[in-house]
């Protein structure tokens, strides 16, 4: 009985699972940030949104 109690206590105090969850949350946030950055860049040929629109607007203002 003492052995089972010691194992349960050790399992309760083990924080390796919490670290794995924290790393998973950080990875998920990183994926969201990368996806947002890629969508912000937009397609190369599409100049109606994203960074393509911004560059097109700048070029239009520089060369009226």
TrEMBL record:
Domain of life: Bacteria
Keyword annotations from UniProtKB, A to Z: Membrane, Transmembrane, Transmembrane helix
Membrane-crossing residue ranges in chain numbering: 20-43
Membrane among keywords: yes
Keyword Transmembrane helix carried by entry: yes
Protein's recorded name: Flp family type IVb pilin
Organism of origin: Spongiibacter pelagi
Lineage per the UniProt record: Bacteria, Pseudomonadati, Pseudomonadota, Gammaproteobacteria, Cellvibrionales
